[in-house]
Design brief:
mainly alpha
Length: 280
């Protein structure tokens, strides 16, 4: 083994097991991400200084919304993986679509599922779609960070071949004897920590007072960081490289750059709404 090359740590995919009942790290990442995100969302809603007067969303409404967004993440994420990443396989094995414990979730599909959940819930409850989208996107990097860490723990979605002299290059159990980039950690840092920090600073500086600004910023920055991360991540074996060396993750992220930029421009031009009374 070349000097400084790191052996992938030996992790069990199961985080907790009591008899026949087992919780996998992958599921735990989603559970903790949604739970911590919900608590952070409640804190943002209760802080009237972050809003134009006060939050247009009540604590009761955000509590109810958790179920909606969870379903959006699961249904959208799985549907996106089926449609974008492995459709021929699932056409031949339709029952496998429901085997969520075997993995296979798409961020872009999950994001679209969340968009549907936000629009549906907001219209049903008579609240601002953009403000609910801002809250949802403001907390989303928490879940992204945790799920990317579980990707690393599971030894999946590893990176492209790296120079053996790279101090943090790793040999992954299913990646052959080739030293690889730990791209899951790159993505956890960019799509999770970095994105969360940028949005948190924007929120503290009053971005929630301009509906759609956090939503647009999340979409734009995630698209950029995902495209960067894809340069270090090995494409899915069943897809490989697509047109011009692009990957599916890159292609799905390109429209996000356009949509995010449009939302940011509209939010800035629209300005902040007039102060409203508290709805807590």
């Amino acid at each position: 083994m070349p000097f400084l090359l790191i052996d992938f740590p030996s992790f069990s995919p199961i985080a907790l097991q009591i008899g026949p009942f087992a919780i996998r790290w992958y599921a735990l990442g989603y559970i903790c991400g949604i739970t911590i995100g919900w608590l952070y969302a409640r804190a943002l809603i209760k802080n009237d200084r972050l809003w134009a007067g006060s939050s247009p969303i009540s604590l009761v409404q955000i509590d109810d919304f958790i179920l909606w967004v969870t379903l959006g993440i699961i249904v959208g994420g799985r549907s996106g993986y089926v449609l974008f990443y492995n459709l021929p396989f699932f056409i031949e094995h339709p029952a496998a679509i429901f085997k969520l414990w075997e993995g296979g979730m798409s961020f872009h599909g999950g994001f679209l599922g969340c968009v549907v959940a936000v629009m549906w819930f907001a219209r049903k409850n008579g609240i601002s779609i953009l403000s609910l989208g801002d809250i949802t996107c403001g907390v989303a990097p928490i879940g992204i960070f945790l799920v990317r860490l579980t990707n690393f723990i599971n030894g999946e979605l590893w990176g492209r071949a790296a120079d053996p002299s790279l101090p943090w290059a790793m040999i992954f159990p299913t990646g052959g004897d080739v030293p690889r980039h730990p791209s899951q950690l790159y993505e956890a840092g960019m799509e999770g920590l970095l994105l969360f920090a940028v949005l948190a600073v924007m929120i503290r500086r009053g971005a929630l007072k301009r509906p759609g600004l956090i939503l647009g910023s999340f979409i734009l920055i995630y698209g950029l960081t995902r495209i960067i991360g894809e340069h270090f991540r090995e494409p899915d074996a069943q897809l490989g490289y697509l047109w011009g060396g692009l990957t599916m993750g890159m292609l799905l992220s390109i429209p996000m750059l356009i949509v995010g930029l449009i939302l940011i421009v509209l939010a800035v031009r629209r300005g902040a709404p007039k102060p409203i009374e508290a709805v807590h």
